[in-house]
Design a protein that fits this description.
Chain lengths: 509, 303
């Protein structure tokens, strides 16, 4: 027995020693350590980077058009751009003297490669482009099927410009070749990604020598790692822990209203919500301001039905947003024939109680809390709302089979300041669950017009239509939250979400 | 061994087939992002990956590749499945060994002492401790340990993989949970052995109490314990999802769960196949330990 124990111990020690002690002394190097939740599974523009991978991409790759912290379009790899033929043709004049991480020159050929059939954005048909061609070495011409605000598409972190050197002659991906302020040095699966300063960077030179992204899947662990000083910066902090971090004198919490909005999307093709009165009754039942205050610790802004974040383009100030009004909700239900006849608190029609199935993804704790708040408030109005907490596969199946009445979700065509999101309710969209030719027409017109005045009017009309017809009821405009230790100086939070702005960031001694 | 591997692969393949959600759609989400999805993309993937074929054909195709030593390519990362697993296996092995060491160092002494002092305060104390250990959720204990030893005392890093300091907290979290079971089993097994006649013989021979307990009682009591520890170790080699997630430990457990959620058949099947192999191997070692513990057990002579 003793021998066995000794043997086990020796093995254990040997294995532990094998881990290797690699604690580095903090020399004069400026190394920023950032906690993220998911690893970068893919660096190739032929696939879509998901989760927190985009924060890392935004350091390595750059886009033709960029966004400033307040979502204003500013020159990126393109110095200037113009549209012709009423927005069907776009010319981008490229910045000269920019080098890729492999030393090759950034030029029109690289842009043509980045938006070739090989890229995910073209392959998936997300970019409405029919032809990308080099006019000369530093001018690229994009031809579109119809007039589109193409400059707003090209700000997307996941659709950047990559160097043709990122693939070999056989077309296989080798390594990421970008133009960004940092370049990839080393990636250890599920552990960390090490980036190094790009000394040849064309823009504001980074002050950090290295950036280390630590992959920490659990949100509470990320917060603790920040508190303990294991990391300097933490992206995406869960709401209950934000308040706690704000109390910590060693930590600064940066917050900014982002472009994402959580919403309840109705199944208008089947079940009770085919009736617009019931959708309006939901809108009058839910107090989104109370939800933000009581369930989300005051993080985020009450949407009250507003279809996209007020920080975005073509937002209208004087929209007829919803005020919670239980009496109006009851009246709408009654008008649709739903009344509580047996006094159990649930309304009925033809003897059937009003049952509502709400799908919620099991990945977001914020959305789960919102779902619970919705459930309670809907119950007060007479709905018997049940929550189904599902992982992606199960949720997708339920959605495809139409086995739901409402889905709580966020995102969909959300990037940059342009309200592409309203396309979600367009009947052509795979996840629309709504059919309204009048709506389709206004959305198409709003996207294709180049007249700013008209665009503004059309998007106002779109927002008003969503409020009146309620294909979805919008709950909470998300806030982006980044927490840093006080030794991190010069950080400015940006409204764009999967974007991490490290320009000007340095560490204080 | 081959029969086990085939059986396990077969069962998981069909279980995954029954799981909700269409694999082609899940792959499309991984490739293009949920919001950019169109029905055409899903159809293209279904055709390209052969997901439109009957499930037995898909299984057959996979089996054919495995027999040629090809575990396939992960749908998530595009890397070979074997590379993905091998990149994480050392971390899992280290954590498994360390957690097992923690567990045995707690469980064996605790179980033996509790048995020797049956119905004493020590006995009740250790057995209550064991009950607590079993019932305490791993993620909760892990967070508590982090808060105390990493945040407040600063002795160990909160999470991550690297030096010996990193392994301490996850090993304790994982080890105490399984120690509880082992301690209870050691105690009951010891009690049974202590009541045997040969214990009386040993005492009659005038052996010292230490020899009796270590050489005769414990050695005989260990047989069920070794069986249990073998099973536990087999499970540890499959990775401990909760502890790995909480401590950001880059083991195979999280890889497996991610594969399930992403409906990454190739990666999942690869993991399962390799785990089955580990289990068989651990069982072999357990059998060898039996022989050493009880020379009456001899496999080659048949039974």
């Amino acid at each position: 027995m003793k021998r066995l124990l000794v043997f086990a111990l020796v093995i254990a020690m040997a294995l532990l020693a094998g881990c290797g002690a690699k604690e580095e002394a903090a020399v004069q190097e400026q190394v920023l350590t950032v906690a993220i939740g998911t690893d970068v599974e893919n660096w190739d523009i032929s696939k879509f980077p998901d989760g927190d991978a985009r924060f890392v991409w935004s350091q390595v790759y750059e886009t033709l058009v960029r966004l400033d912290p307040d979502l204003k379009l500013v020159p990126g790899l393109a110095e200037k751009w113009e549209s012709q033929e009423a927005g069907k043709v776009w010319l981008f004049h490229l910045r000269k003297g920019v080098k890729f991480h492999d030393g090759t020159l950034f030029n029109a050929a690289a842009v043509v490669y980045s938006y070739s059939e090989r890229s995910n954005v073209i392959k998936a048909g997300t970019l409405p482009v029919t032809k990308v061609e080099a006019v000369d070495d530093y001018t690229v011409k994009f031809t579109c099927q119809q007039p589109v605000p193409l400059d707003t598409y090209l700000t997307h972190v996941a659709w950047p410009v990559a160097g043709p050197g990122s693939i070999d002659s056989a077309g296989n991906f080798v390594n990421p070749v970008g133009t960004g302020p940092f370049k990839l040095v080393k990636q250890t699966k599920s552990q960390e990604i090490v980036l190094e300063r790009n000394a040849d960077y064309w823009g504001e030179k980074p002050q950090l020598d290295r950036v280390v992204f630590k992959v920490i899947p659990d949100a509470s662990t990320r917060t603790l790692a920040l508190t303990a000083g294991d990391v300097d910066m933490c992206i995406k902090v869960p709401e209950p822990e934000i308040r706690q971090l704000e109390q910590d004198p060693k930590i600064t919490v940066h917050r900014k209203l982002s472009t994402f909005t959580d919403f309840l999307q109705f199944n208008t093709k089947k079940g009770p919500f085919t009736d617009v009165k019931l959708r309006q009754a939901v809108a009058y039942s839910i107090d989104t301001a109370g939800m933000v205050k009581n369930m989300l610790d005051g993080i985020g802004a009450a949407a009250r039905g507003r279809a996209y974040s007020p920080v975005m383009l073509y937002s209208t100030d004087n929209l007829p947003l919803y005020q919670p009004d239980p009496e109006k909700a009851k009246a709408l239900l009654a008008a649709a024939g739903w009344q509580d006849t047996n006094g159990d608190g649930v309304v009925e029609k033809n003897g059937q109680p009003l049952k509502v199935k709400m799908l919620v993804s099991s990945w977001s704790s914020r959305q789960q809390r919102e779902a619970e708040a919705c459930q309670a408030q809907l119950a007060a109005a007479g709905f018997a709302a049940g929550i189904a907490l599902l992982e992606t596969g199960a949720l997708t199946r339920a959605e495809n089979q139409g086995d739901f009445d409402v889905i709580l979700r966020s995102g969909f065509f959300v990037w940059g300041p342009y309200p592409h999101h309203v396309r979600i309710h367009h009947s052509k969209n795979y996840r629309s669950h709504y059919q309204n030719p009048a709506y389709d027409q206004v959305v198409d017109a709003a996207e294709t017009t180049t007249d700013e005045q008209q665009k503004r009017q059309l998007y106002e009309q779109v927002q008003k239509m969503i409020l009146a017809e309620v294909p979805a009821f919008y709950l909470v405009h998300e806030e982006k939250v980044v927490a840093t230790r006080n030794n991190v100086a010069g950080y400015t939070i940006t409204a764009e979400d999967p974007w991490l702005n490290l320009a000007g960031v340095h560490l204080k001694r | 061994m081959l029969a086990v591997a085939f059986g396990v692969s077969f069962v998981t393949f069909f279980l995954m087939y029954l799981a909700p959600g269409e694999p082609a759609e899940m792959i499309a989400i991984t490739r293009y992002g949920a919001e950019n999805l169109t029905a055409e993309q899903v159809a293209v993937i279904r055709l390209a990956e052969g997901l439109d074929q009957p499930v037995y054909l898909q299984f057959g195709r996979w089996l054919g590749h495995v027999l040629q030593g090809d575990l396939g390519v992960s749908l998530i990362s595009g890397e070979p499945v074997l590379t993905e697993i091998l990149a994480r296996f050392p971390a899992t092995l280290q954590l498994a060994v360390a957690a097992m060491a923690v567990s045995l160092l707690i469980a064996l002494p605790a179980g033996v002492i509790a048995a020797l002092k049956q119905h004493s305060a020590v006995d009740y104390f250790t057995m209550t401790g064991a009950l607590l250990g079993v019932s305490m959720p791993n993620f909760w204990l892990g967070l508590l340990l982090m808060l105390l030893f990493a945040v407040n005392l600063g002795w160990f890093p909160v999470s991550g993989y690297g030096g010996w300091r990193n392994i301490v907290l996850p090993a304790i979290t994982l080890g105490t949970g399984i120690a509880a079971v082992t301690a209870r089993l050691t105690r009951s097994s010891m009690l049974e052995v202590l009541a045997q006649d040969y214990m009386l013989t040993a005492r009659a021979k005038g052996l010292g109490e230490g020899r009796i307990i270590a050489g005769h009682a414990l050695k005989n009591a260990l047989i069920p314990v070794v069986t249990m520890v073998g099973l536990q170790f087999g499970h540890l080699l499959e990775g401990a999802v909760v502890v790995e997630t909480v401590f950001a430990w880059p083991g195979v457990g999280k890889l497996l769960v991610d594969a399930i959620f992403a409906r990454d058949y190739a990666l999942l099947q690869g993991c399962v196949l390799i785990f089955a192999g580990c289990f068989v191997l651990v069982n072999l070692v357990v059998d060898l330990i039996y022989v050493w513990l009880d020379p009456r057990i001899r496999y080659e002579k048949g039974g």
